[in-house]
Design brief:
The chain contains 26 helices and 26 strands. The protein is an alpha/beta fold. Helix 16 links the parallel strand 16 and strand 17.
């Protein structure tokens, strides 16, 4: 029965590794330790056949633990597998230098874990068998010198049998380089008769190159009368397979301690070398796409930097991020998203030329290292080629997926003299390209750092503002054109900073959309606006419809209808007095998902309107699919409606089409009496703008109501 010791400070890891280890053999003894120091105290008594240890542990890390195990003669030869989550090559090298036998990355592949553990347990059993047989033989030899002399022949034969049975190549040559012994294992690998080889020179048995190398090393052992420890050697066996051996050469001495020959032993480590090569590959390549990973790219960039310092060469680092990839995962699922990434990787590999390295950095982010471009124009040309390449549709599982890419480029040496700065600056340029609409390329510019710092500072301030609820609402009235009365009000957010200054939405909402804070901010606006509308009604003021703007981000999940339902219930507001405004670009989300949520909101009795109409898709073809009650014509069409016939025609067209779909039309941004009369003549149902009333705090709005609620009063007052 094999004994396996598992050392890991995490209970869940110990449980997982124990369960996997229990499947290695039918009967296996497993002992687990959370503290490596406690494990060291018990190793001698447990006599394990295999140790599995974590790399990072409190008190005593994996390297120190391995060194302590190897320092104890009783445990020095026990195979040790090290497991770590880090892909850093230095971790593996430190562990191997300390004496680790093998290395696995966490989370471990169960089959790889079992295969490697089985091989090491098999090797351990062979070691113990050989040691046991040698110990038995040594005990026999120690019984008496007389018995040894009498049994020397028999013992020699038995020793030869033991040596023949060991899966290690063992041979003996004399001082002239003639073979005196070759075990069965070596003879079988080489395809020779061991008895026929006795007395033959190495040149007669081995190929000339190997024979010359073997003879030179034997001479070195004979001259210095000392061993040559553990060097790697290659051999092509009788089947033509190339094998790697770990070879040791030691002097053979007679009873007078004279060196009379050389003993050579070679352990087959072909499997271990293959595992090391696989480990090396996995450490430097992405498991999904097979492309080089960030580690590989970093090492290659370091090489380029070292080479560039010896001359005047430069190189370009392009960071690529797919625009809208999240929607692929959300709509089609992560497995389809993975296949899409594989297809993108294959397409990028068509760029592979000697001067390019294509890598995957993680997620939907890739990179291309362009070595020695002739100038920045060559770097820009490659970036534009990549943009065009990724703009083409990609077929995945019967779907034709169309995405674009944003690319940021940093040039060595002006944009950075190390991999960290180059990647960071290329990232900044990529985000600039994305913020400009995506599907484009952007070189790094020095002021991007300043803008990134400003964005980071704004993020921190916004998080505090959300926690402290530093936002306030102002209210702008909406008037019916047929009666002149105030029938609604739009809630508009302001940020009152700790210094008392008031920040308009343009100063922070776009950033909140990018960093995700728009969700708690939008929830704040909805809750406070509904509270205010309910309070006005309780205080006897006219029942006004409260308009609240929605963010496209709120439609990415399924939680918006639940949020609105909860707020209406908490504030006891009549749903017919709540109007939710969405912009046309909200339909750039999954349209079907948006429709489902809007229908749920409409069923509550909430009024749905489209804000800034005409600036997005500029089409009513999609609007008729939505449960929309009102359209708000964007103020850009109202601004020149008096002087520009085209704007007047657009307003009239929108009004006619909206009315044909039984929708009300609101004109936004009305700032003069002439504009008011013009939109009235066009058939608009309601207006909103500075001419009718500016956004104002709640108390000021209540006073505004008390002075008159008709447009005619406003016009003359």
């Amino acid at each position: 029965m094999s004994t396996i010791v598992i050392v890991d400070d995490q209970p869940i890891n110990r449980a997982i590794y124990s369960k996997i280890a229990s499947s290695i053999e039918n009967v296996v003894r497993i002992e687990t330790f959370a503290d490596p120091r406690e494990a060291l105290k018990s190793l001698a008594s447990l006599a394990p056949d295999l140790i599995i240890t974590d790399y990072n542990m409190p008190g005593l890390d994996g390297v120190a633990f391995i060194a302590r195990v190897r320092a104890d003669p009783a445990t020095a030869d026990i195979p040790i597998i090290v497991i770590t989550v880090s892909e850093d090559r230095s971790y593996r090298l430190r562990a191997l230098d300390a004496g680790a036998t093998d290395f696995l990355l966490s989370p471990v592949d169960h089959r790889e874990f079992v295969t490697r553990a089985k091989n090491l347990l098999k090797l351990r059993k062979q070691q113990l068998l050989l040691a046991h047989r040698a110990e038995r033989l040594e005990r026999k030899l120690e019984r008496s010198e007389q018995s040894l002399r009498e049994a020397v022949r028999d013992s020699s034969e038995r020793l030869a049998q033991v040596i023949d049975a060991v899966p290690v190549m063992i041979s003996v040559t004399d001082q002239q380089g003639r073979f005196q012994f070759i075990n069965e294992y070596q003879a079988a690998l080489m395809g020779i008769d061991p008895s026929a080889a006795i007395g033959s020179d190495a040149v007669e048995v081995l190929d000339p190159e190997r024979a010359a190398r073997t003879r030179a090393l034997d001479e070195l052992v004979l001259q210095k009368r000392g061993p040559i420890h553990s060097f790697e050697d290659e051999l092509v066996d009788r089947a033509g397979e190339r094998r790697v051996f770990l070879t040791t050469k030691s002097p053979l001495r007679n009873g007078s301690n004279q060196t009379i020959g050389v003993v050579t032993s070679s352990l087959d480590i072909t499997g271990r070398k293959a595992a090391e090569r696989h480990l090396q590959y996995m450490a430097h390549h992405d498991s999904l796409t097979g492309l080089p990973n960030r580690v590989f790219l970093s090492e290659r960039v370091q090489q380029e930097i070292a080479g560039s310092r010896r001359g005047d060469r430069c190189f370009a680092l392009h960071v690529i991020d797919l625009d809208g990839f999240k929607s692929v995962n959300d709509v089609m699922g992560h497995s389809t998203g993975d296949r899409f990434l594989i297809a993108v990787a294959q397409r990028l590999q068509t760029l592979n030329r000697l001067e390019f390295v294509v890598a995957r950095l993680g997620g939907d982010e890739f990179a291309v290292l362009q070595t020695n471009p002739s100038n920045t124009a060559a770097a820009a040309a490659l970036a534009e080629e990549i943009v065009s390449l990724l703009r083409e549709p990609i077929a995945v599982e019967g779907h034709s997926v169309v995405l674009a890419a944003s690319i940021g480029t940093a040039i060595y040496p002006p944009d950075g003299d190390n991999i960290e700065d180059l990647l960071r600056h290329a990232d900044l340029a990529m985000y600039k390209a994305k913020s400009d609409g995506g599907d484009r390329h952007q070189f790094y510019a020095a002021d991007m750092n300043r803008r990134a710092c400003q964005a980071a500072q704004l993020d921190a301030e916004l998080r505090l503002a959300v926690e402290r609820e530093e936002f306030v609402l102002h209210y702008q009235p909406q008037f019916r054109l047929d009666s002149g009365e105030i029938t609604g009000v739009e809630a508009l957010i302001r940020w009152r900073k700790p210094d008392g200054s008031l920040v308009l939405p343009g100063g922070f909402l776009a950033r909140a959309e990018e960093n995700g804070l728009i969700l708690p901010i939008s929830a704040f606006v909805l809750r406070h606006a509904c509270n205010q509308a309910a309070a006005w009604r309780r205080n006897g003021l006219p029942s006004l419809r409260m308009s609240v703007n929605l963010s496209p981000v709120q439609f990415r999940g399924q939680g918006l209808p639940f949020l609105v339902t909860r707020v209406l219930s908490e504030t006891d507001l009549d749903p017919r007095l709540l109007e939710l405004e969405l912009t046309e670009n909200i339909l750039m989300q999954d349209v079907d998902q948006v429709i489902v949520q809007l229908e749920q909101l409409s069923e509550l009795g909430v009024v749905i309107s489209i804000d800034d109409f005409g600036t997005g898709f500029s089409s009513l073809s999609y609007v008729k699919r939505l449960p929309v009650d009102r359209l708000k014509i964007d103020q850009s069409f109202i601004r020149d409606v008096i002087s520009d016939p085209s704007d007047r025609a657009i307003v009239a067209t929108i009004v006619n089409l909206a009315h044909s779909l039984r929708m009300d039309v609101v004109a936004e941004g009305v700032e003069s009496a002439d504009q008011l009369e013009c939109v009235r003549a066009a058939g608009c149902d309601a207006v909103q703008g500075y001419y009718c009333g500016r956004p104002m705090p709640a108390a000021q709005f209540e006073n505004f109501l008390s002075k008159g609620r008709r447009i005619a009063v406003l016009a003359t007052g």
